[in-house]
Amino acid sequence: MKQDEFERLMDKYGEVVAIIRKSAHDLHEHVNQTYDKVHPYGFHLDMVANAVKKYGYVVCDNEEDVVPLFFGAFYHDSMEDARLTYNDVKRTAKQWMNSSQALMATEIVYALTNEKGRTRAERANDKYYQGIRDTAYAPFLKLADRLANVTYSCSNSNDANSHMRIVYQSEWPHFLASITSDKADVRYTLPREMITEIEGDIIQ
Q1: Which of 65, 118, 135, 183 could potentially form a cystine with 188 if both were Cys, beta carbons 3.0 to 4.6 Å apart?
Q2: How far is Cα 105 from Cα 94, in angstroms, rounded to an integer?
Q3: Is the Cβ–Cβ distance between 198 and 150 less than 8 Å?
Q4: pTM metric for this prediction
Q5: What does the DSSP 8-state code read for residue 87?
Q6: Alpha-carbon distances of 11 from 15, 25, 141, 194, rounded to whole Å
Q7: Is 50 exposed, middle or buried (0-12, 13-18, 19+ CB in 10 A)?
Q8: pLDDT 10s digit of each residue in the chain, 204 long?
């Protein structure tokens, strides 16, 4: 999709995206989740959505996918961190989308939900990454999530952020390979510009 067309569609659906944003912010606030123990969790969700605004035109296939794409950005942690079930997410999505859009949005959230595990590696195992590679827009949104986390960790200095910058740097080759799909469909692709932006922060 051309960038100007994507921008036009963001304007067209801006009102519903704003409602979805508030709903996701309220959800995470309700479970008292914060980001870096400093910000409301909506701070992170907005960073992910901002990556969609900036790069979404590269992967977005058609108008019908714009709202599910933003829903995925704002709700990507809702099952993992805010205790929603798959059916909860689908029911929520149906408030603003038709059935096929709601299914796409829910599948994105499901794909981005970590597996059960004791360690970071167990939670993001091969099955988890396979689910991302097999779900339209999930690789892009996982990269948007990583971009948000890397940008924050590299621009704030405390022990936790310094540690996570090292983690992201060490994980990068495996992470990128793990979310790279072999599907030709544009919805499964990763914008080269996003990859370059991340590497500019962590590969120094």
Answers
A1: 183
A2: 9
A3: yes
A4: 0.95
A5: H
A6: 8, 21, 20, 22
A7: middle
A8: 999 999 999 999 999 999 999 999 999 999 999 999 899 999 999 999 999 999 999 999 999 999 999 999 999 999 999 999 999 999 999 999 999 999 999 999 999 998 888 998 889 899 999 999 999 999 999 999 999 999 998 887 788 888 888 999 999 999 999 999 999 999 999 999 999 999 987 765
